[in-house]
Amino acid sequence: MEYTTSTFGLTVLAGDAVARLEVPPTGPARTSAPLRWSRSEKVFVLLASVLFLALSIGSIRMESLTTNELLFIPAGLSYLQRHDARMDIEEPPLVKVIVAIPALLLHPKIDYNDPTWTANPGAYEPEYLFGQKFFEKWNPHTESLLFLTRLPAVGLTLLLGLSLYAMARRLAGRWGATLAMGVFATSPFFISYGSLVHMDIPIALFSLWAMWYFASIWHEPTMRNALLFSASLAGALVTKFSGVFLFPAILLAWVWFRYLERCSPNQGRPVPVVQKGFYRERLILKATVLAGIVVYLFYLGVFYRSDPRIILQNEWSSLVSGGMRALPIDILVRRMSNHPGLERFLLPPALYAGGLAYVVGHERRPVYLFGRWHPQGIWFYFPAISFFKLASGMVLLFFLLAILATVNFLGKRGKNIPIVPDPERFHVRAVAAGLVVFAAIAMSSKLNVGVRHFSVPITLAVLLSSLVIPLARSVVARSWRFFLLSTTAALAFSCLVTALVTYPHYLSYYNVFRLNIPKQEIAVTSNLSWGQSMVELAIFFREHHVATPYVDSGMSPIDPGVYVSGARDWQCDRPDPVAPEWVAVSTARLVREQPNCDQLLQYPAWNIGDGSVMVFHMSDSTTER
């Protein structure tokens, strides 16, 4: 295969750099057939899985309700009980339905006669009030309910880890797979966000599958691969609206594949004569249409009792009252009003398009990064916050991968030396295309609310990091190979140390690269304090015998009294005339730039939840600790 320097810029450069590794000198080249795992591999995967489950389940036992869970859990239950989409249209329903299934075992109570459910069109985001009443009034004992709903999220995240191992096994052999699985299982990023009820880790799972099986169709255009691709694409589309980004990622991968075939028609496994031309494209198109049908039927089955006009009118009013653009939703409402006979037929596309338009309408939000507020997202937000939020060993491993891939590309330019076995080259390129597209879209967006929105690029990067092992064997001289492989092993071991030392505060984790900078001065929101520390706060006040603690209203999405006995709601920027003695605030309220509550820093303070919350003793003495 001949490579030219005329490529698609950084994408093809990166892909070729990770697609040209010297085939191991011993044994025949690997094929696309399933690889049998040895007993030692099975033992490792089992131990890594147990470690991940232990850390995840142990941490969620100490974490209180987070902001998004306030919306997702009651919404999912209402989907199963009423088949109505009026709650939380801005996220597709799959994950919410999955996590709500085990909650049914506890027979949770929901008052469907409450005004939050029966709100007329024009009500402002009633799902927040609905969620608050669900946890505060109807089901005040949230521990068991919250734990059961989080277990499916942990299961989906573990499935992602097993998928990474199996795919890395195909790309880089057992040691590359061991590296990828080890980094995944000890990552504070996957342990924290993968243990909570939200969509960012599941969308990474389905996106990984979709790009992988797209490449499988290209190499081996069979009905099995087409069905797996279709199921993965449909799963992504009903998990999170960012699943639509798979279409430009797939398009980029397709252009890349066709370009390389034109430059080198005989690369990889030849396609049979009966499958020449556009057979693979037709198969992919059919699989995509099937995925669309599955999404349509899923929405129709889950929401068949919905009144789409009322739901869309609610969302339109919510956006307009918030000063945001809502033109697409307004058009949908008027079209459906003019054609009531098509309302049932248009229910799924109307709900999907309305939810997508609602997300776009909320795209611009203020973001705090590196000590200052920005009126909207900034392009370097996700790379910067990933540098501080991912385990330091994982970050250095990504840098090592980039260095080795670049050296490999420059040192073997134009040479027909594959990075991975021929059957897997399409997979590497498809994953690289997905990484570039998802990263570029995230960086160009104005919605910077947490590193969790970068889950797809991070996941794809973990898979590609498995190539560090074979790259080291190909790029580095034999005398230096042991040192480089030992360095890689040390980075993986450091990830294990990070996971054990950080337990159970994975959500508020920042790595050592922050030095002495306060966490809240780097980034806040779901990167630091998401309402997860109320259980630890209750323990603190109980141990200090505080009868009447004052808790800032931004600490928890629900009344802090649900967790903290005797707690009184308080706002640190608008305090009551009565001066409290003990107060607790989220560290997000202690940022350097206004609006803030930094006047509290003059009092003795205690850190809760590894820096996500601070408790102040507002006494005359400032020396007490």
Please describe what this structure looks like.
- By secondary structure, the chain is mainly alpha-helical.
- It folds into 2 domains: 515 residues, no CATH class; 85 residues.
- The protein is 55% helix and 4% strand.
- The protein has a 5-stranded mixed beta sheet, with helices on one face. A two-stranded antiparallel ribbon has the order 1-2.
- Helix 17 packs across helix 19.
- The longest helix has 43 residues.
The profile of the biggest β sheet is: 5 strands, mixed
Instruction: Please count the beta strands (DSSP E, at least 2 residues each).
Output: 7
**Number of domains in the coordinates?**
2
Give the radius of gyration: 26 Å
Q: How many individual helices?
A: 22
The H/E string reads: HHHHHHHHHHHHHHHEEHHHHHHHEEEEE
Average pLDDT over all residues: 86
Strand order of the largest sheet: 4-3-5-7-6
- Measured as a percent range, the helix fraction is 40-55%
User: Low-confidence segments, ≥5 residues, pLDDT <50?
Assistant: 1-32, 268-274
Gross morphology is globular
